């Protein structure tokens, strides 16, 4: 006779006793039938408990990761290497290289960017005539342009910041290759007193004086991306100007807004006027008491400016307002295209742009530059949620990269994707595609394409 | 226990309810944990964060199912970003999303079919010549006897696994940008994997082919690894020396053709002419590359045939040694194995001597006295680990970068405080007559950068 199974025992009401069919087994026979049922119930509960416990552990391993319980040798090695890398990284970041022992100029001393030059236009002309192999106009009429950008020499506070600096530099290298613009990426602090955003002033001055062959110096922030690879600067508009900056004249002169101009992307001509402007501009820059005091003046005079030390953008705005007659004759405030394009209003519309417009427009239909003001992935005070910033920067980069990859027959698998997909089969006549899709040839022959 | 308060019947029912209740609760907990794992509600996030993430996942799924309604989905998705304001609290890998499929020619290749880099082109030299004649504004020679050169390098489009990797990639790219600006070279930084089968070190082959046929104006393509840095900014390649050759690599004839040594040449820095010969070579080079059986089996052949090669899958460098050694009649006379200067310089024997070089020599030599390229073979700063100690690699890469950067900064009167320091100091006073000062090595306006005079 078979034993009553545990389940059949439970199905019966607990009042009924097991039938005489139950063959006594082991020590259980000595217990009351009710006790055996109890044991069976306990066993059942125990089984379920163990099963559930097992599943819980598996799932927890999956989500939380109890890796330490089963680390094998290679895991251990990996950890050691990661720890060592982090230690070295911390060492690199904390090494401030004697930064603390600086004497910055105070309000009473005079600061200057360098020895005053007064005859730069003549000297430069003489040099250009003596050196015809370094002309300031190349390729039948285009002025030689130098794009200048840069970042601090230390690793970013966040590793993702360095990744976007890398992508930003690639983006600029692509634009410059297509348009024959030379590029300097600066990672040196040339003047400790002009540290931070002010560092662009001594840098621009130095490059102008060392490279008389450049007609225009174009400063661009590291957080600004080219998003229209086919757009050429309309330099013919600036024949009478020496400074080209994106902004709005009414915001500048009527409202005196601290964001009426944007110094994240601007051009200066290589001439005496610019040297003079840089000298006047730099007076608010020196770190320490000068910059702090200047900050107070700027906050008091410019609309909407929060309280903080002087920044180069507010200082330029203030200078142009205060000495309007001296400077504005040679300043072009550009807003017909996005020499600077504030990212928030642009990044969500990229797909719409790809459907409705084409590259080469440079304005809000297909922005020339998308500038990620306030995102600061490298470090600093962040004004926006970081996820939004990072997703948008990736989208902007891929949007631009698509325009470069089109020649090669590839596109990104979506603006959030680092992977690419083929959009054109390999051809036995690739030169046909070159004529159709190489942006330089399209610009040359006046044909436009998406 | 309850027997005293309620009837036995009821108490039994209560017991049953309790038991069922326990089971239900347990299952509920498991379900919640599974939801956290698969719908992705982060690790120990707040309930609000959980809710946001669940909404986001559904938004993503909805978007996947409705590719046409991209516009709406994009605007709704933007509301679901987490409100994190510190980069350290956010896992950046989450922003990447491999999006839709599609694309042409995506079918998986039948393994029995031979791998092809692309459609067979057989008359490239003539086609290219005709194109160059039609497009005189894009000449293949940019100076007297100076070919148009495109320097090509690249890295992965995703952030490095190593937290300091991207910083070194950035410095390495800046280093190359500087050299290219000084020498009038064009540059392409690749971040796209063009062919998933040719992954890893083989990815350069489809890229090189694509660039050659898309840029007929380029005469020479110079491939350079991302872990190689220019350390001699003044050295101009002897273009005339290579006018009859199509492939220029660093290496030794006797090591390649004689010993068949697996490091007899180096494919971390080499030049390839834009011509039919090169397309044919790429076609012969590629078949050992496709990931899987082809690469594994080729690896075995290479280990067997080449001297001192360890056991691992086929790599492009060993494959090149093998091709040159076994098909020398076909290729040898157009290949130049350069060793008069360091077109590739193994870092291990160079980095400790930089101070000695500064004392005794000057830039422009390109050889063991002042190497053109210092190549950090085996360091892998972007990956999780390499063959050498992390500390030595990172510190030496920094020194090599500063050594090269000093030659750029000296043009403007600056230099690094020491080779280990990122701080720069003035080495020349600012003069009132900037145009009368030329830099010590003549890099501001070097002869190799001057334009062709008759064009302007």
Describe it.
The complex is a heterodimer of chains A (450) and B (456). Chain A is α/β, with parallel strands linked by helices and 450 residues long. Chain A is 42% helix and 11% strand. Chain A is built from 15 helices and twelve strands. Chain A has helices at residues 6-11, 33-63, 73-94, 120-130, 159-179, 200-210, 249-254, 272-281, 289-301, 312-322, 324-327, 350-356, 386-405, 430-437, 439-445, and strands at residues 137-138, 142-143, 145-150, 182-186, 216-220, 224-226, 243-247, 261-269, 331-334, 369-371, 410-412, 420-422. In chain A, a hairpin with a 7-residue loop joins strand 11 and strand 12 (420-422). In chain A, helix 5 (159-179) packs parallel to helix 13 (386-405). Mean pLDDT of chain A is 86; it is low at 1-29 and 66-72. In chain B, strand 1 and strand 2 (146-147) form a beta hairpin. Chain B has 13 helices and twelve strands. Residues 63-79 of chain B have low confidence and may be disordered. The radius of gyration of chain B is 30 Å and the shape is globular. Chain B has a six-stranded mixed β-sheet with strand order 4-3-5-8-7-9, with helices on both faces. Chain B has a two-stranded antiparallel sheet with strand order 1-2. The chains are: A alpha/beta (450), B alpha/beta (456). The interface between A and B is large, with 121 and 113 residues.
């Amino acid at each position: 006779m078979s034993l009553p199974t545990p389940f059949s025992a439970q199905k019966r009401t607990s009042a009924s006793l097991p039938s005489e069919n139950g063959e006594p087994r082991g020590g259980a026979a000595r217990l009351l039938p009710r006790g055996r049922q109890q044991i069976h119930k306990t066993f059942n509960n125990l089984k379920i408990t163990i099963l559930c416990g097992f599943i819980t552990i598996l799932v927890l391993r999956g989500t939380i990761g109890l890796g330490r319980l089963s680390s094998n040798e290679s895991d251990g090695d990996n950890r050691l290497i990661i720890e060592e890398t982090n230690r070295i990284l911390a060492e690199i970041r904390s090494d401030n290289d004697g930064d603390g022992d600086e004497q910055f100029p105070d309000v009473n001393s005079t600061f200057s960017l360098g020895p005053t030059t007064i005859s730069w236009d003549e000297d430069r002309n003489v040099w250009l005539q003596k050196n015809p192999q370094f002309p300031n106009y190349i390729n039948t009429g285009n002025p030689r342009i130098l794009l200048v950008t840069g970042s601090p020499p230390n690793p970013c506070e966040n590793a993702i910041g360095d990744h976007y600096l890398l992508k930003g530099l690639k983006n600029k290298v692509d634009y410059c290759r297509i348009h024959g613009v030379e590029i300097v990426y600066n990672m040196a602090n040339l003047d400790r007193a002009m540290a931070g955003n002010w560092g662009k002033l001594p840098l621009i001055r130095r490059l102008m004086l060392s490279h008389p062959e450049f007609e225009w110096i174009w400063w661009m922030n590291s957080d600004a991306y080219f998003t229209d690879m086919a757009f050429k600067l309309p330099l013919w508009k600036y024949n009478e100007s020496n400074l080209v900056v994106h902004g709005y004249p009414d915001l500048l002169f009527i409202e005196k807004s601290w964001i009426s101009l944007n110094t994240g992307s601007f051009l200066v001509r290589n001439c005496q006027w610019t040297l003079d402007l840089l000298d006047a501009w730099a007076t608010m820059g020196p770190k320490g008491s000068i910059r702090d005091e200047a900050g107070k003046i700027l906050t008091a005079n410019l609309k909407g400016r929060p309280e903080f030390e002087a920044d180069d953008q507010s200082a330029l705005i203030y200078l142009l307002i205060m000495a309007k007659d001296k400077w504005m004759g040679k300043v072009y405030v550009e807003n017909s295209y996005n020499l600077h394009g504030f990212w928030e209003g642009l990044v969500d519309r990229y797909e719409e742009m790809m459907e409705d417009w084409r590259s080469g427009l440079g304005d809000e239909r297909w922005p020339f530059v998308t500038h990620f003001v306030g995102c600061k992935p490298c470090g600093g005070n962040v004004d926006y949620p970081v996820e939004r910033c990072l997703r948008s920067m990736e989208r902007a980069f891929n949007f631009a990269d698509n325009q470069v990859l089109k020649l090669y027959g590839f596109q990104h698998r979506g603006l959030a994707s680092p992977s690419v997909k083929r959009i054109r089969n390999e051809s036995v006549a690739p030169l046909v595609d070159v004529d159709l899709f190489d942006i330089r040839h399209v610009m040359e022959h006046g044909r436009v394409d998406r | 226990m309850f027997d005293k308060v309620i009837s036995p019947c009821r108490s039994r029912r209560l017991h049953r309810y309790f038991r069922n209740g326990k089971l239900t609760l347990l299952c509920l907990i498991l379900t919640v944990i599974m939801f956290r794992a698969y719908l992705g509600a982060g690790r120990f996030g707040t309930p609000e964060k959980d809710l946001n993430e669940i909404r986001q996942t559904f938004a993503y799924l909805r978007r996947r199912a409705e590719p046409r309604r991209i516009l709406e989905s994009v605007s709704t998705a933007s509301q679901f970003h987490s409100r994190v304001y510190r980069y350290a609290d956010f896992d950046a890998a989450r922003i990447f999303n491999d999006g839709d499929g599609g694309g042409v020619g995506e079918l998986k290749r039948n393994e029995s079919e031979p791998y092809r880099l692309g459609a067979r082109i057989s008359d490239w030299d003539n086609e290219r010549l005709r194109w160059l004649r039609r497009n005189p504004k894009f000449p293949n020679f940019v100076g007297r006897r100076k070919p148009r050169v495109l320097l090509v390098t690249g890295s992965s489009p995703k952030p490095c696994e190593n937290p300091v990797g991207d910083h070194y990639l950035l410095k390495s790219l800046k280093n190359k940008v500087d050299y290219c600006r000084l020498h009038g070279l064009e540059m392409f930084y690749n971040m796209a994997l063009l062919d998933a089968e040719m992954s890893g070190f083989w990815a350069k082959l489809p890229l090189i082919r694509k660039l050659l046929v898309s840029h007929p104006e380029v005469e020479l393509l110079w491939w350079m690894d991302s872990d190689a840095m220019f350390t001699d900014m003044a050295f101009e390649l002897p273009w005339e020396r290579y006018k009859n050759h199509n492939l220029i690599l660093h290496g030794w004839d006797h090591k390649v053709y004689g010993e068949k040594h697996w490091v007899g040449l180096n494919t971390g820095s080499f030049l390839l002419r834009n011509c039919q010969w090169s397309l044919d070579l790429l076609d012969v080079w590629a078949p050992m590359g496709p990931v899987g059986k082809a690469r594994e089996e080729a690896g075995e052949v290479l280990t067997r045939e080449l001297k001192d090669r360890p056991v691992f899958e086929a790599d492009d460098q060993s494959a090149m040694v093998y091709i040159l050694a076994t098909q020398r009649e076909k290729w040898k006379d157009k290949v130049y194995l350069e060793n008069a200067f360091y077109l590739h310089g193994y870092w291990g024997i160079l980095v400790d001597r930089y101070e000695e070089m500064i004392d005794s020599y000057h830039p422009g030599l390109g050889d063991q006295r002042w190497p053109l390229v210092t190549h950090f073979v085996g360091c892998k700063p972007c990956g999780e680990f390499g063959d050498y100690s992390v500390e030595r690699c990172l510190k030496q890469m920094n020194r090599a970068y500063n050594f090269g950067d000093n030659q750029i900064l000296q043009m403007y009167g600056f230099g690094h405080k020491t080779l280990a320091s990122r701080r720069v100091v003035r080495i020349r006073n600012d003069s009132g007559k900037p145009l009368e000062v030329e830099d010590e090595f003549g890099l501001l306006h070097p002869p190799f950068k001057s334009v062709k005079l008759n064009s302007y």
